Amino acid sequence: RNLLDRDTFSKSDPICVLYTQAIGNKEWREFGRTEVIDNTLNPDFVRKFIMDYFFEERENLRFDFYDVDSKSPNLSKHDFLGQMFCTLGEIVGSQGSRLEKSIVGIPGKKCGTVIVTAEELGCCRDSVLMQFCANKLDKKDFFGKSDPFLVFHRSNEDGSFTICHKTEVVKNTLNPVWQAFKISVRALCNGDYDRTIKVEVYDWDRDGSHDFIGEFTTSYRELSRGQSQFNVYEVINPKKKGKKKKYVNSGTVTLLSFLIETEVSFLDYIKGGTQINFTVAIDFTASNGNPSQPTSLHYMNPYQLNAYGMALRAVGEIIQDYDSDKMFPALGFGARLPPDGRVSHEFALNGNPQNPYCHGIDGVMEAYYRSLKSVQLYGPTNFAPVINHVARYAASVKDGSQYFVLLIVTDGVISDMAQTKESIVNASKLPMSIIIVGVGPAEFDAMEELDGDVVRISSRGRFAERDIVQFVPFRDYIDRSGNHVLSMARLAKDVLAEIPEQFLSYMRVRGIKPSPAPPPYTPPMHVLQTQI
């Protein structure tokens, strides 16, 4: 909207070029270009970009705009109209997955705005439940009737076929009714509704030399008409057809039912407005070492982030795209607080217990550094108070409109194991997940136990309803070459990868469906002015 006008006699002819950034070397690569739209400053580009989306990765995007002046593919031959930077998460995490941002890049000029919308490709998530029966199939067995089963194949681009489903065998009948089965649309036809689906009918033999009865072809589009005269198929055996003049068919197969089920995804909830609330809790116990010493895990190095800072930034920068107000409560535990030196296991890093919120990840980092200067590292290491702190908030909104993620960064020596397990078992019923990043050289056996990937965590005989804890040791991510950018991306990927599934497991258990997304954006129509 409102692009700069660079043409003397007419309006600009804009094109948009999308670049993505490699995680390691930060190098921008061209991903694709839209079409050119002639003579307008308010283009609605048609060409879409299809990209892979991972919640746990930060995908930086850059949109460059040019006024096209000739047929040359070389961008330097055209007038630059400005650019916009954002992340894929920022677009997806915006209300209705629609982001409007200013175009920048030409000093002293207003370059207009760009509106980007994202939608998840739908056919990838549908599955269908179908049931078939057959009538008057050829008798293949010498002593009894046939033992029929069906084999489904999807066709590939090159005309070959790939097997995608086998039904069970129904014994000793020429009129079998097979059980209903569920298959994803992707497996059945690769999401292409008109692609051929070949179905073969066999008579099962114990020795594996199953006899071919016949075959027929159909497509997803035909099957989707459901039970009707269109979905009764003649089973044809080409060999028999070639030999016998009077051959009609080897029986018929009928579709009894066809039901489409759409799996809801993490993005459906985000698009419907579910917010992810991010809370951080930092371990201020004495086992971390004196912050003024270079050996301390909390050492404030003026030139680079310490392990705590890196873990906070790595995870926080990705999660913040899904939180509309970008206000994050930041807590500390295991320190003595000024002025009276009382020990606290749940204090606000910004020094304001009534309002522990910090603005953005930068605000969290600032509050963390301020706290290090004012509190005294102490002990013991208790996790339960900060887990219960977040659980109190999570317990007050169980309708699926909010989900809570608590990041605990710790040196791993835990003192209240029993209470922590109890807190986690209780929290597993709530809309929350816990990420624990262990820093330093300690043995993290206790943390592994809390993770619950191998053995589901339990407390006093009660098991956690779902797995909500993800633990990773920071030392596994220190890049030998000193490339912190890559190691942080890998850390974030591993700790955040389980969140969408944990999120969905909560919604499923509670039977919460995504809210409908706000209506899609439609460009305003130009009103024709009429003279009366």
From TrEMBL:
Annotated coiled-coil segments of the chain: none
PROSITE patterns attached to this UniProt entry: C2, VWFA
Keywords: Calcium, Metal-binding, Repeat
UniProt record, GO biological process: cellular response to calcium ion
Cellular component, GO annotation: plasma membrane
InterPro entries cross-referenced by the UniProt entry: C2_dom, C2_domain_sf, C2B_Copine, Copine, Copine_C, VWF_A, vWFA_dom_sf
VWFA domain segment(s): 277-478
A molecular-function term among this protein's GO annotations: calcium-dependent phospholipid binding
Domain C2, first and last residues per copy: 1-101, 110-233
Sequence similarity: Belongs to the copine family.
PANTHER family attached to this UniProt entry: COPINE (PTHR10857), COPINE-8 (PTHR10857:SF133)
Record-given protein name: CPNE8 protein
Organism whose genome encodes this protein: Notiomystis cincta
